[in-house]
Amino acid sequence: MNPLHRRYVHGHSDRESERLYYQASKLAELLHHDTCYSPGSRVLEAACGVGAQTVILARNSPGAEFVSVDISPESLATAKDRVFQEGIRNVAFRRADIYDLPFGPETFDHVFVCFLLEHLADPLLALNNLKGILRANGTLTVIEGDHGSALFYPDSRDAHRVIDCLVQLQRQAGGNALIGRELWHLMTDAGFMDVTVSPRQVYADCSRPDSVEGVKHIFITMIEEVRKEAISRGMVDKETWEKGISDLYRTTEQGGTFCYTFFKAVGRKEG
Ligand SMILES: C[S@@+](CC[C@H](N)C(=O)[O-])C[C@H]1O[C@@H](n2cnc3c(N)ncnc32)[C@H](O)[C@@H]1O
Known about the structure:
Bound molecules: S-adenosylmethionine
Number of strands: 8
Low-confidence stretches: none
Structural class: alpha/beta
Radius of gyration: 19 Å
Mean pLDDT: 95
Number of helices: 10
Strand content: 15-25%
Distance between the termini: 36 Å
Order of helices and strands: HHEHEHEEHEEHHEHHHE
Helix content: 40-55%
Shape: globular
Largest sheet: 8 strands, mixed
């Protein structure tokens, strides 16, 4: 096994696929409203997973040609079905490893990456590989979260502890759940020009029921998925876990607030 390949901390369950679809559709406007590729351009979507972002990307740019890749054949098969069912025809799928891309230099006009770097042992190497297959003046767009950006009321030490279990598990798997804040340095260190990073904030209180549902089904569900592993590894005891999760749900009830920031970076390959 390639030493750079790590266990994918969220797994490939149906529940996780549903969470990714729900996340992509709920965040489509916030994350994608300013991503549109011109007709005829060739775009690589690196790590498409089950195709949750693919559908949005391809719909926003119907004249562009997408190649969507992922290392997981199961996820790719699901993505292919999903995109076909949605009636989208401007996407081709291919199995590929970001560390060993099967494309020649300067094959693509643009590259799009979402929620991938946080899982990689060497995100800088991945960015350099992506730069290699981009044409001069082509763009790279990267979207990542940052679990350290979760702020909430009522505040709770136990809620922070359960979030930290996921951060630690992801670190042990070689990833970095706090990578959003690092996009600027990663993109500039990889040699991209004109880098811009824009924070995209989700804020929920009971006057925004849609956002509250998003917090429950995207963020809290993601934390709940690591319950078994966190407890069995002794990171936290069962009582603290239950209290932490219950405190997270409390932030979605009357008087509670929850805030989370995604980071979107765009850079250009030197001409
Ligand atoms: C959190 S999912 C994100 C999927 C999709 N971009 C989305 O936002 O819904 C991360 C994906 O990265 C893929 N992945 C992990 N390591 C990879 C690698 N070395 N090369 C290609 N894909 C990889 C996983 O298989 C998984 O589908």
